[in-house]
Predict the 3D structure of the following.
Amino acid sequence: MKKAKLHNGGNIPKSSTGSRSDPRLSNPGKCVGVSKLPEISCTKPKIPSGNSTTASPSGDNFFLRGVIISIIPERVPKARVDLLRKRIGERGGGIVTFHPQGALDETVTHYVVDDSVDAEEALRVFLMKQPDLEALSETLSNVQCLPCKWISGSLMSRTRLDEGGFFLHRQLLDLITRKMTASRKLDCTPPKSAFALFSLAVLATPFACTPKSEPSSMLSVNAGTGGDGSGIKRKWESIAEHASSGYEDSGGAESSDSDEEDSDVDEEFLARVQPGHMPFAAKFVCSYPSSSGRKNVNGHITDQLEKLQNTYKSTGQDFRAMAYGKAIGTVRNAPRITKIEDIKGLRGIGSGIKSKIIEILETGACEKVAAYCMDNEMNKAIELFCGIHGVSSKTALKWASSNLRTLEELPEKVRLNRVQQIGLKHYHDFLERIPRSEVVEIESTVKEAALRLQDGLELITCGSYRRGKPTCGDVDILVTHPDGKSHRNIFAPLLDSLRSSGFITDDLLVADEGSQKKFLGVCLLPNPGAKHRRLDIIVVPYSEFGCALLYFTGSAHFNRSMRSLAHKANMALSHHSLNKNAVRVGKKKVSDGEPLPGMITEKAIFDYLGLKYLEPADRDH
DNA sequence: GAACAGACTAT
DNA sequence: ATAGTC
DNA sequence: GTTC
Ligand SMILES: O=c1ccn([C@H]2C[C@H](O)[C@@H](COP(=O)(O)OP(=O)(O)OP(=O)(O)O)O2)c(=O)[nH]1
Ligand SMILES: [Mg+2]
């Protein structure tokens, strides 16, 4: 099942970690800073000449004369916004509050966004105000969209810095033209603005304020419906639902450099600290059984945090979403939180989430949730599209940004790849979870076909089924053979057999090569009213059985935790093997190390890592 | 400021 | 290289 | 967003 995919790319939140006690994101008032600087806050000097780069001579105390700035508050700490407002006013600039909903204010000459905001993210915000790409490009071509460091630098140097020295604006314009070109292809609408051609010509070189691969977002702000609704199970959801305490890093104990290249140091070390625990294992959730059964006494808090987590996930801010997942896990397992001191010492809760919890404690809700996770068209469309197998945050956002809103219009208006076509075809079936009894039927069907082909094959249904969940998102079947070789020639024949019986209806992915074979696809039981179900089959050599079983049983969060732990111990754990002496420089692997022999059971792997064995049901983190 | 799991396919 | 999935 |  898909669910919590984590594509690469780090989300770089940069600033914003401040101690802001939650910004009042949307102020109904038109002018910002009313309380502090009434005299300037509503000034709107006439626009000088759009985006001219006329820098005032230094020494001019009012070098921002004629400039009307709108600060997009998302991710800029409130304290910083307040300070900027004040300083801008002092230098003769005007300020207009940024309203997520209303139309773009025509008088604004400069939009300022947090330094960590990239072009894609900025576009998303502007699209909420002006959904029409062409109109937007028209408007934006007459203003500047700049990172925060432009205004801070200007204030610092008492000079209006040359806007041309910042790439964000050009990147934004370029992004818009690319999108217009793309949607024109779809609509067969002819190009319009000459500006589009121009900006193509000035494509900027990525730099400084350039996207870091994850467009972190700042969808907008708007008080109002704290929407959530949606009965559909989002794919990006539940990335770490049951985390016990965050699986991260070790505390003090750092081994790192020092040699110990020698083969046996590892074993000796482990043997010494054995039976049991690496000195740093304490901070990894894979050291503890998952909290099955215990009830969450902080539901009022985790509910709010989950909304933020889901929104971050759906907008591609995976690391931020993951951080929320860890925080949610610790809050869920903590005793009832009623006061600020109760938060102290909880792992995964830093200043940002702490302030939100405090707000929930005091007011019963969190403004950021209402503002950010709002139930608007855009968010609903993104959520809808993310429900398609083969579609995730990037694609969903792209489609929603080009004003697509329903499943029906997709086939005609965008180019769906093969997988997405299948995903769309079974959209509703795939959203349903599978009762265990039906998993058993599917398992039996596959098992019978397999055993007809080869005696002695072992089939184990893994995933959430093996962890004992009452319903499953899909069926994950591992196939191996204890003789170490009879697994080899059964993969394709097995699939052929299941296809010809009509059981397998679609292939999503067939991976033939490599020691492990993998099938991701769709099956259908020959029962009246049966639904199409996602079926994953892997065929593995017996030598990799332990690692493969461990992997395929999960949970995903548990796996990540255990792999982190292995990594910390200079090992590397994958679905193939547990390697020792794995060497990495940063996150780049220099040497895979050597696979450890004998890791043919899950127990052996737990042991080698110094972990207490956990039953599958206790790995449901 | 780097890391946050690790491996795989499709495009 | 990016997007998506397990 | 959090940790080291
Ligand atoms: O990002 C991932 C996703 C999955 N897995 C492993 C663990 C997981 O248990 C197994 C099967 O994946 P699936 O997506 O089916 O998860 P599940 O645990 O079976 O849950 P669901 O009930 O949604 O199928 O593959 C990972 O290691 N990383
Ligand atoms: Mg599954």
The radius of gyration of chain A is 27 Å. Residues 168-187 of chain A form the longest helix (20 residues).
